[in-house]
Amino acid sequence: MKSKLEQIRAKVLSQITDCDTTDRLNEIRVSILGKKGELTDLLKSMKDVQPEERPKVGQMVNEARTEIEKLLEERKAKLEKALREARMKAEVIDVTLPADRRELGHRHPDSIALEEVERIFVGMGYEVVEGPEVERDYYNFEALNIPADHPAKDEQDTFYITGDILLRTQTSGVQVHEMEKGKLPIRMIAPGRVFRSDEVDATHSPCFHQIEGLVIDRHITFADLKGTLAEFARALFGEETKVKFRPHHFPFTEPSAEMDVTCFKCGGKGCRFCKGSGWIEILGCGMVHPHVLEMSGIDPEEYTGFAFGVGLERIALLKYEIDDMRLLYENDIRFLRQF
């Protein structure tokens, strides 16, 4: 028994000395002192020892156990100290080094302009409504009084997925969806991304954004349209801004008009920004065509309405005096920081 105890003691001392991780040290503890450990098994064999020898042998086992536990604790303390020192050395901060710069993003000019437009119209009681970018030909063209053979479809050539499904060229389809719900009156704007088969240049892109508005109610007149858009222009470009309406043609409105605003650069006197005219074209508008109302299930004898549409990029280009639309899509942080 004494010889076996000495063997266990010598082996454990060697294992503890060579141990270099706390996990391995715990394995040694379990293998010696655990329920199925070697020292525990030795204690269980005490029944085979002569009764007169048991006190002496028991004392030897307890002394060995105490010594092993003490060595385990000492080794554990040394390993933890070494681990802590290594961690502290690895985590030392050299305050003389330049700090890592974490650059935050910046709101895009389009986002800033859109938030301002939404704030203006929500303040006038309008609702912001979104719709699908992948649309049916019916909602993008036919329901807006643009049949298959209408020349306006050439002006808004787009990307077709099938013969009936396309990428929308305008957000007017969202207006049709809202009219078909039959929840009147309607006061809404529909901002969103649209697509056309345009060449990329300083003022065109195959992908851009529109904001279209719609009001449907009883007794709506062109005067309501003019008053609404005049208030919008003043809120967006300044209180001194004046508006001018020129006759135009849109298939889904009758009568239709283009709206100009006084140049906010020269106050309408004429400059290079407005090409000497004193006016800047800003959007298209008109009274909703009676046939458009009928196709959406609204009685044109009882309800009338007006609609308007403006390019979001056009607002950003004018408001922030950007001369090339392509700058908006290059993601150059030096450019974006200016707004």
Characterize the structure shown:
This is Phenylalanine--tRNA ligase alpha subunit. With 339 residues, this protein is α+β, with helices and mostly antiparallel strands. It folds into 2 domains: 2-90; 109-336, 2-Layer Sandwich (BirA Bifunctional Protein, domain 2). The chain is built from 12 helices and 9 strands. The protein has helices at residues 2-18, 22-33, 38-44, 54-90, 109-123, 137-140, 152-155, 172-180, 222-237, 290-295, 312-319, 333-336; strands at residues 127-128, 134-136, 165-167, 186-195, 207-217, 243-250, 253-262, 279-288, 304-311. The strands form 2 sheets. The chain has a 7-stranded mixed β-sheet, sandwiched between helices. Strands 2-3 form a two-stranded antiparallel ribbon. A hairpin with a 2-residue loop joins strand 6 and strand 7. Helix 1 (2-18) runs parallel beside helix 4, helix 2 packs antiparallel against helix 4 (54-90) and helix 5 packs across helix 11. The radius of gyration is 41 Å and the shape is elongated.
